[in-house]
Automatic annotation (TrEMBL):
Gene3D superfamilies: P-loop containing nucleotide triphosphate hydrolases. Belongs to the ABC transporter superfamily. PANTHER family: ABC TRANSPORTER ATP-BINDING PROTEIN (PTHR42711), ABC TRANSPORTER ATP-BINDING PROTEIN NATA (PTHR42711:SF5). Residues 9-234 form the ABC transporter domain. InterPro entries: AAA+_ATPase (IPR003593), ABC_transporter-like_ATP-bd (IPR003439), ABC_transporter-like_CS (IPR017871), ABC_transporter_ATP-binding (IPR050763), P-loop_NTPase (IPR027417). This is ABC transporter ATP-binding protein. It comes from Hyalangium rubrum. GO terms for molecular function: ATP binding. Keywords: ATP-binding, Nodulation, Nucleotide-binding, Transport.
Length: 313
């Protein structure tokens, strides 16, 4: 890739209103060629709408999108041939076979991968002749990915590629996505799965209420909230957060239900202090757990809410 290649995506000041609903509220995004980027956020955060604005499927209320150095207002047909889209739900015709479906998608593009290559990439060899209506959820998601790859796109948009899949199917898709990434394609995906974002993406943008609240490499974002360790505790009665203000190496403190979530840097200093403070207040611990910080804690640090709690199971 030339060092003068334009960014794969350059979005400036994107805003989208649906009547009185502000779905996207000023998003700036630059994705370089070859990067794999994740948009992460709770339901209704504006991820899919952002994807649709980038994909040229919706016009923004204001702001601009440039993909591969081109605007949608220019040669949109030429641009469309260079990108691939796997929407949240692809409706296929159930009475076509996998092979026929991919032949159909391939016919939409002036150039691209052969149907055999697509079937190989999506690991659907055994289902080549099967009717689409007989595919499992994981196989359908892989078919959707294959359809998005039909034009051999430089830039791939995947809206929740592993939503609703069992762990085995999800891992199969991760494997395929890792291969696509290694092949140098630019990939933008949305996901609810923090581990997925952490594993697949070079960097993530955390979206909440139509805005990017923070972005960066998962490890850097986690390091950036300080601490790295999370303590969750519930005491025998409620107490004021100020009571814990002097906790050694404390970075963040959030009241959570009946207790607190604490981000700390040094567990071996924080834990004994905490036990002693709880004891000196005449309380006992109802629950105490520790874990490594995750992207969910980054979301919590920026929004005061947990990403997991904002999600359906
Ligand atoms: N076509 C539409 N008409 C009206 N409101 C819409 C439309 N599409 C999305 N919205 C609203 O815009 C907001 C953002 O929705 P969007 O689907 O982009 O969020 P999301 O982050 O992708 O959520 P999910 O993870 O559930 O897909 C929500 O409040 C949603 O109800």
């Amino acid at each position: 890739m030339s060092e003068f290649a334009p960014p794969a995506i350059e979005a400036k000041g994107l805003v989208k209103h649906y009547g009185g609903t502000v779905a996207v509220d000023g998003i700036d995004l630059v994705v370089q060629s070859g990067e794999c980027v994740g948009l992460l956020g709770p339901n209704g955060a504006g991820k899919s709408t952002t994807m649709e604005l980038l994909e040229g499927l919706q016009a923004p209320t204001s702001g601009s999108v440039s993909l591969l150095g081109q605007r949608w207002e220019g040669d949109s047909t030429g641009l469309r041939a260079r990108i691939g889209i796997a929407p949240q739900e692809t409706r296929f015709y159930g009475r076509l076979t996998v092979h026929e479906t991919l032949e159909l998608f391939r016919s939409f593009y002036p150039r691209g991968l052969s149907v055999d290559e697509l079937i190989g990439l999506a690991r659907l060899e055994e289902k080549r002749g099967a009717y689409v209506m007989h595919l499992s959820g994981g196989q359908l998601q892989r078919l959707s990915l294959a359809a998005a790859l039909a034009g051999d796109p430089e830039l791939l948009f995947l809206d929740e590629p592993t939503a609703g899949l069992d762990p085995q199917s999800r891992e199969a898709l991760w494997d395929i996505l890792s291969g696509l990434k290694a092949g140098g394609r630019t990939v933008v995906l949305t996901t609810h799965y923090l581990g997925e974002a952490q594993m697949l993406c070079d960097w993530v943008a955390i979206v909440d209420r139509g805005r990017i609240v923070t972005q960066g490499k998962p490890t850097e974002l986690i390091a950036g909230i300080g601490g790295g360790h999370v303590i969750e505790l519930v005491a025998s009665r409620a107490f004021a957060p100020e009571t814990l203000a002097d906790l050694p190496t404390l970075h963040n403190l959030f009241p959570r239900g009946a207790g607190f979530t604490l981000h700390v840097a040094e567990l071996h200093l924080a834990l004994p202090w905490l036990m002693e403070r709880v004891r000196s207040l005449g309380m006992t611990l109802r629950a105490l757990s520790t874990r490594e910080a995750t992207l969910d804690d980054v979301f919590l640090a920026f929004t005061g809410r947990s990403l997991r709690e904002s999600e359906p199971t």
